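Worked example

This section walks through a single chain of length 434. The input is the sequence exactly as stored; nothing has been trimmed or padded.
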Amino acid sequence: MPDKAWFEVAPSAARLTSSLRDIGYDFPTAVADVVDNSVAAGATRVEIMMEFAGSKSRVYIADDGHGMSPGALLEGLRLGTRRSYGQGELGRYGLGLKTASLSQCRSVGVISRSNPEVVRTAARVLDLDVVEEWDQWVVVDPGADPDVARAKQWLAEGTGTVVLWRNLDRVLPEKRPEGGWARRRLEALATKTAEHLGIVFHRFLEGLEGGTPLVITVNGQKVTPWNPFAPNEEACTELPSQRFEVAIGEVSGHIGLRRFILPSRDRFSNSSEFERLSGPLNWNRQQGLYVYRANRLVQWGGWSGIRGIDEHTKLARAAIDFSTDLDTAFNINVAKMKVSLPPQLRQMIEAPVNELCIYANDAYRRGARTKPKPVPENLDAAPDVRAAAQAVSTAGLALRAAAMQAGEWEAWQRITALLRHEAPEIAESLRLND
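Given that input, the structure is written out below as tokens.
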């Protein structure tokens, strides 16, 4: 306690919860934040059930993780939980479950079982109507609640946790929650949620380091992982990976960078796969950096100010991996949807990113060339001519990449400008005009 007089000024719970509802979630990202808790609890299966019933519509998010004791459950509903997070855990601020849930509904219930030997469940409900009435952050026992009773039945076979969202005032229209538009909206959100979960948890769905894959279902349909780097495409190219060490204040750690050049349309295994890999933002806006925090994708698309989006580099994608120890360095937000690259890291990866884009530019232009070249008069020499032309073109590409790696890009640009002016035929052969 300080030597001077002090006064406790508790915030108004009603006003505070109202503000926290607008922290920046949409429905899919809110569900993903709750799934983070399931992953942290060691779940192998997560089921999301979105049931339309007009104003009584509800969402269940159930997992088979290790569950929570009654005390841990109550602590989990505290605004800013006092528990600490270990390395690799997806939690960060102790706000996710509450802020994510309340961004979509006015009542969130948590039902959990932690003892595999004894069928004993604990259930608590955080209801904004009660919070506003009391103007205190209070959690209630739901008692004989049929929706909670259903959740308890699902936990009869083993440990796990069920999160229950009700009074979906941010999801369904307040005036007409019973209408067909409301039903279609919930169905559309189910589709968007499945797509979002397939993106952000794709590494877990594929199985980390060859381990057991996580299974996520939305309304009974298994979520399909969407890997932005097209690992099943033979024509996909990966450049050498790199590892960087950053130190910002008292925080230090290692960051991994992997760089990929996806195939052009004509080199994809089929057209439908090319369209699928275009992603939710489509090819141009899907190019860029994919930032992973403890294997969970938190941000993707764009180059974070390192360079601009360009049609000719749309095949370039790169993965940046950092651990939760570097959260403060990346300035991750509460919703775990956005990060800021540390300036130190931005400088480190600028050259590798530009090198990646040089190769991606080349892959794009090779794929875009559809006009046939003139057939040499000596047909027997055609293979040798083509091989020689390809070798010269590859040499030009290698020279550009070497100049980038050596930090002599400005000098290289002056050299290429001079060649274009003094020896345009050589510049064309080396493809310095691309």
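What to look for: Residues 370-382 have pLDDT under 50 and may be disordered.
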